[in-house]
Automatic annotation (TrEMBL):
InterPro entries, per database record: Cro/C1-type_HTH, Lambda_DNA-bd_dom_sf, MLTR_LBD
The entry's keywords: Plasmid
Species the sequence originates in: Streptomyces cadmiisoli
GO molecular function: DNA binding
UniProt xrefs under SUPFAM superfamilies: lambda repressor-like DNA-binding domains (SSF47413)
Residues covered by the HTH cro/C1-type domain: 36-85
Protein name: Transcriptional regulator
């Protein structure tokens, strides 16, 4: 829906329904008692919470004015809309979809955890936008490194790729892989330049000459699939395809899964690695702490 196709009637109905669900005490306003003629919040109360004039809000709700993006965001906060309600509001207001702010306290869901555990034949892990390793299965720990033995501060794929000699040695073409990770991080800065985890990571990575040089080139990329060659000390040389799956309910979390061509020596190598990992009962883990 473009800015010229706003559904003003639906917009007004939607806003009325949402303010009817709230009472003044819920949003920190005084309750004037039983004499209120409307259920929920009055227009002037929504306007007060959104820091706009009552006349402005009334014209928006009545379809006589198209709200700007900042005003829509203020209304979202005033009416305490959910992410889904916010997206719907922007759609019917005729504004382009605006990415919802990431909830920094959202961890990996039990559904995602179960999905990882059931991928017994494929290494898989969950990465955040800043490439923090949030969760992994047994085979990912066996293929790469045991992330459970890494401190949470260091449990970041970029950090480990530059600083962990075991992970670095696995890569047949470390430079290409590391360069791609830097380009991904640069893309992330455009979306959320003030992300505190990103800023802490950049501060830690800048002493690395390769990282600093690649960062300054300002190359950007978001690659959802590819191919990697690993030289594993027990499974041998593995040529693996990887795909990235993004959750619709947690768009800041990305599941990376490695697979091998059926019947290939790499598939047999993964099978040997999986058998050893499950025999040793190498534990999977999940990190729910986000700051």
């Amino acid at each position: 829906m473009s800015s010229g196709n706003a559904d003003q009637k639906e917009l007004g109905t939607f806003l009325k329904a949402r303010r009817a669900e709230l009472d003044p005490l819920q949003v920190g306003l005084p309750d004037t008692g039983p004499r209120r003629r409307v259920a929920g919040l009055r227009r002037e109360e929504v306007a007060q919470l959104a820091a706009i004039s009552t006349d402005y809000y009334t014209r928006v709700e009545q379809g006589r004015m198209q709200a700007s993006v900042p005003v829509l965001e203020a209304i979202v906060r005033a009416l305490r809309l959910t992410d889904d309600q916010r997206s719907y509001l922007f759609e019917i207001a005729g504004r382009p979809p605006i990415e919802a702010p990431v909830r920094p306290d959202r961890g990996v869901t039990p559904h995602t955890r179960r999905l990882l555990d059931q991928l017994t034949g494929s290494p898989a892990l969950v990465l955040s936008d800043t490439m923090d390793v949030l969760a992994w299965n047994r085979l990912a720990a066996a293929l790469l490194i045991d992330f459970g033995q890494v401190t949470e501060e260091d449990r970041n794929y970029v950090w480990l790729l530059f600083n962990d000699p075991v992970l670095r040695a696995l890569y047949d073409d470390w430079e290409t892989g590391a360069h791609a990770c830097v380009a991904y991080l640069r893309m992330h800065t455009a979306r959320r330049p003030d992300d505190p985890r990103l800023q802490r990571l950049l501060a830690r990575m800048r002493p690395h000459t390769d990282f600093r040089n690649w960062w300054q080139t300002r190359e950007v990329a978001v690659q959802g699939t590819g191919n990697k060659v690993f030289h594993h000390p027990t499974a041998g040389t593995l040529t693996l395809d990887w795909d990235t799956l993004t959750s619709s309910t947690a768009p800041d979390q990305h599941i990376v899964v490695w697979t091998a061509q059926p019947g290939s020596t790499s598939e047999k190598g993964l099978q040997r690695l999986a058998a050893a990992a499950y025999e040793a009962d190498l534990p999977p883990a999940v990190v729910n702490t986000r700051s």
